[in-house]
Amino acid sequence: MALTSRGYVQQDVVVRFAPSPNGLLHMGHAYAAIVAHDFARNKGGRVLLRMEDIDIQRSRPEYTDAILEDMRWLGLIFDEEVIYQSRRFKDYDAALQRLIRMGVTYPCFCTRSELRTVHEKGKAEIGPDGPIYPGTCRGLSADEAANRMQSEAFCLRLDAEKVAQQCGRLVWNDEYRGEQFADHAVLGDVIIQPKDTPVSYHVAVSLDDARDGISHVVRGKDLLASTHVHRFLQALLELPTPDYVHHPVLLDETGYKLGKSRNSASLAILRQGGIDGQKLADQLRENIFPVGITLSKD
Fold first, then answer.
1. What is the rounded distance in angstroms from the CA atom of residue 158 to the CA atom of residue 190?
2. Spatial contact of 225 and 195, defined as CB atoms under 8 Å apart
3. Per-residue pLDDT tens for 28-51?
4. pTM reported for the whole predicted model
5. Of 149, 187, 166, 146, whose CA–CA distance to 104 is shortest?
6. All domains of the chain in start order, with CATH
7. Looking at the DSSP assignment, which residues form a beta bridge with residue 112?
8. Maximum Cα–Cα distance for the chain, whole Å?
9. How far is CA 155 from CA 125, 158, 200, in A?
10. pLDDT in tens, 77-103
11. Residues whose CB falls within 8 Å of the CB of residue 136, separated by 6 or more in sequence, listed in order
12. Is residue 297 a contact partner of residue 176, using CB atoms and an 8 Å limit?
């Protein structure tokens, strides 16, 4: 028996590590992979490897190959075959169409430069992941939106207020923080279908966690805010709610999270430099980090 957000139930523990093959992984990814892997193994469960390759513009086969080599180098063994999100676009599209029919979405024609200007003028609320969309296109009439969709590029956004009204009070369980209440205002009207990508991370991960039978979503606390959106999507699409384990993340010497955009040293460089991957993994398990790298506070 296990305590989940649905009470005590009989369940198998299934965890996933889900990197994006749009760049080389760094030590922060290694730490996340180890935490997820060990969480499952310590509970006698399974751990899956899912490639979140929905970004068709940036995902590359060579990055996928590097991820697989990184995992072998760290000594991490995954169950079942590797899962690729790019093979599930039909399922994502079906979910998007369902959300559209439910009337909880709207097209957004704002460009990045326009949104940047709004932010620079201090007219956008700042959330955990940056500026929150101010709702510029939310009030467009159906006719105006339809006409503009014929000639302008647009993304699809989730109307957070409508979703909250329709779903009511929602909760989930976080093993670090206990019972959590979903708040539609945390990230606002998030994009669920970008202009240049078939589907957003939010929709894809919500569907995949259900399809793959994930019992515990073990990931960094930097994704905690996204869980509010995922909980609403689970309710809208009638998906099960897993338990969540949002663990601390690795920080660099400036106090920022390690990241690809910050040019954090890649695991590939460490591998090529002759570093023992399994020894590194054991050190990360003991919270022993290279000089300049620290673990964030919970």
1. 6
2. no
3. 999 999 999 999 999 999 999 999
4. 0.92
5. 166
6. 1-87+248-298 (3.40.50.620)
7. none
8. 62
9. 20, 10, 10
10. 999 999 999 999 999 999 999 999 999
11. 108, 110, 114, 118
12. no
